[in-house]
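[retry 2/3] Zinc-binding dehydrogenase: previous attempt timed out, resubmitting with same input.
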Amino acid sequence: MGFDAPGGPEVFRPETLPVPVPGPMQVLIKVDHAGVNRPDVIQRQGFYPPPPGASPIPGLEVSGTVVAIGEGAAPEMLNRRVCALVSGGGYAEYCLAHAGHCLHVPHGMDMAAAAAIPETLFTVWHNVFERGWARDGETLLVHGGTSGIGTMAIQLAKEFGLSVVTTAGSEDKCEAARRIGADLAINYTTQDFVEKVNAFTDGRGADVVLDMVSGDYVQRNLDCLAVDGRHVTIAVLGGLKAEINMAKLMSKRQTMTGSTLRPRSDEFKALLADEIYNHAWPLFEDGTIAPVMDEIFPLAEVSAAHARMEAGDHVGKIVLKVGNG
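[retry 2/3] Zinc-binding dehydrogenase: success.
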């Protein structure tokens, strides 16, 4: 699925392209399912072009079967069921992936669920645990607790011994976040999350904030961030610019950082995949953690999938059914 010009969900149209050929360290995946993510929406709107060399077709995560391998890829990957983080191309019958960015799909795991994992898992692991240095006994504040990122962050953080506070835009979504595992879910339309976080932590504040909003949320995040707390921005849905009180930041020795995963090097993502495989993937293999699934759309209905994401009514991951299996 592609589009000729940026626009609303209706711009998607089917296209026929040659099946890609895997290059060095690449594998060709016959796609079963593809995850839908907020960056896909932003790309379709014209604000998030693919990095150099990446497919212009949207789609940052897939599940499927490896049907061809390039030079340097392990021969045993052929015919293996995998899910993969990709830089683009997921909304298609065939998709190239770096061999090092694939994770095997455990026996018994549904392929739709497998496609819903890589983008959020890689993003949360890197930003909460590597950039945010989250550790057991600490408190994480994550905004958008019922989004794909939010539901993954809640589950991972709880399994690694953190308390989790989240925000959501309705009482129903707050209840969903609590069912997923959040210790406190705050309805940001009726409650002041700064006040609630500080009360929950007895005035100490959260140790890590995973921020997808930015804009005027940043200073509010810092106001409920602990001494030596870490503020990690991964999206700017609320605005590109923020005004903050640097004196407060200095007095509390707070750290601010952020990242985007898509343009990082293949080598970096392969190292990240190795760390995830060793430390987090066992939780998915044994079923301790499973992605929260919202709705599965046929690839032909990708416009409807994007419309649902933009409406903000989903809880968990939206996925496209691509293959016929």
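[retry 2/3] Zinc-binding dehydrogenase: The chain is about 30% helix and 25% strand.
[retry 2/3] clearing retry counter.
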